[in-house]
Write a structure and sequence with these properties.
InterPro entries: C-type_lectin-like, C-type_lectin-like/link_sf, C-type_lectin_CS, CTDL_fold. This is Aggrecan core protein Cartilage-specific proteoglycan core protein. Pfam families: Lectin_C. With about 260 residues, the chain is of the alpha+beta class. It has helices at about 5-30, 45-55, 65, 155-165, 190-200; strands at about 30-40, 55, 80-85, 95, 120-125, 125-130, 135-145, 145-150, 180, 205-210, 215-220, 240, 250, 255-264. It folds into 2 domains: about 30-140, Mannose-Binding Protein A, subunit A (Mannose-Binding Protein A, Chain A, Roll); about 145-165 and about 175-264, Mannose-Binding Protein A, Chain A (Roll). β10 and β11 (about 215-220) form a beta hairpin.
Length: about 260
C-alpha cells in the first residue's frame, strides 16, 4: 500500500481548510442587508455612523447586491456609498477594504468635474463621483449571520467561528479573527436570521454573549444594551437566540446547539 508523506498530508489538509473556508465565505457573501439612513451628513460622518452601528458604508460586489438595495435612493435622492479615493489619486477603493472590481458607473462617470470629487453617491442603481463634503443621506450595510448546522457547546462554537479565518499579525486578540460568534449590534435580528432560528433543530442558537467575572459581555468585549441578571442560574452563563423570538435567552454553556457566526 502506498503511504502519503508528511508533506503531502499537510498539503491535502491545507487544501481541505481552504475549500471549507471558501465555501463558508461564498455562502456568507450571499446575505447582505442594506440600511438607508435619512440624515444628511458628509461622507466621513456617514462612514463613522455606519461603522458604529453596522459594518460600513455600502459596498457592492455584483448586480445582486445592487438589486438588494432599499428604494429610498431613487427619484433624485443621491446616497453615499463606500467607494472613495485619495486626493489626486486615480484608484477607487471601498472604505471597508473589499477588493471587488465590480463597478456600476453612470454614463460619462466618474468625471471629476470641477476637481476634488473623491467620493461616490448612488442614485437608482448608478454611481456618480462628488465632493466628500456634500451633505447627503447614506446607505450602510451589514452582513447576515450564518447559521452553522453543527451541534457544539458554546466554547466549541466560538472556536469554530474563529478558526474560519484569522489575521495572524493583528495586535489585539479580538481583531485576529475575521469571524466570531454573533454579537448583536442592531436592536433586532433580521427576519431571515429569525426564520433560521425557528427552523433550527435545537431549542436555541448560540450567540457571542457570556457571563465572565461578574459581567455579561459580547465576544468583542462590549456590554449588552439590555439588562441581564447579575446572578444567573447555575451554569446559565451563555446567550442564545430562542425559537420564541427572545433575542437573548440564557442557557447552560455545556449544552450542544447550532450557532451563528458573523463577520467582525
Amino acid at each position: 500500500m502506498l503511504k502519503r508523506s508528511a508533506s503531502s498530508r499537510v498539503f491535502i489538509d491545507t487544501l481541505k481548510i481552504i475549500f471549507i473556508v471558501s465555501l463558508f465565505i461564498e455562502t456568507y457573501g450571499q446575505n447582505r442587508i442594506y440600511v438607508f439612513v435619512p440624515d444628511t451628513v458628509t461622507q466621513p460622518e456617514a462612514k463613522q455612523h455606519c461603522r458604529k452601528y453596522y459594518t460600513d458604508l455600502a459596498t457592492f460586489r455584483n448586480e445582486d447586491d445592487i438589486d438588494a438595495l432599499p428604494n429610498e435612493c431613487h427619484f433624485g435622492v443621491f446616497c453615499w456609498i463606500g467607494l472613495q479615493r485619495k486626493i489626486n489619486d486615480t484608484v477607487w477603493k471601498w472604505s471597508d477594504g473589499d477588493k471587488t472590481n465590480f463597478t456600476h458607473w453612470e454614463l460619462l462617470q466618474p468625471d471629476n468635474f470641477g476637481g476634488q470629487k473623491n467620493c461616490v453617491v448612488i442614485q437608482g442603481s448608478f454611481w456618480y463621483d462628488t465632493s466628500c463634503d456634500d451633505k447627503r443621506p447614506f446607505l450602510c450595510y451589514e452582513d447576515e449571520p450564518i447559521l452553522v448546522q453543527e451541534n457544539k457547546t458554546w466554547q466549541e462554537a466560538l472556536e469554530h467561528c474563529r478558526d474560519l479565518h484569522s489575521y495572524p499579525f493583528s495586535r489585539t486578540n479580538y481583531f485576529k479573527h475575521a469571524y466570531d460568534l454573533l454579537h448583536i449590534r442592531s436592536a433586532n435580528l433580521s427576519s431571515a436570521a429569525r426564520e433560521a432560528v425557528v427552523n433550527a433543530q435545537t431549542e436555541g442558537v448560540w450567540i457571542g454573549l457570556r457571563f465572565l467575572a461578574g459581567n455579561w459581555l459580547w465576544v468583542n468585549e462590549m456590554p449588552p444594551s439590555n439588562q441581564l441578571p447579575v446572578c444567573p442560574a447555575a451554569g446559565n452563563n451563555c446567550g442564545t437566540v430562542a425559537k420564541t423570538g427572545d433575542v437573548v435567552q440564557l442557557s447552560n454553556c455545556s449544552e450542544k446547539r447550532l450557532f451563528f457566526c458573523s463577520r467582525n
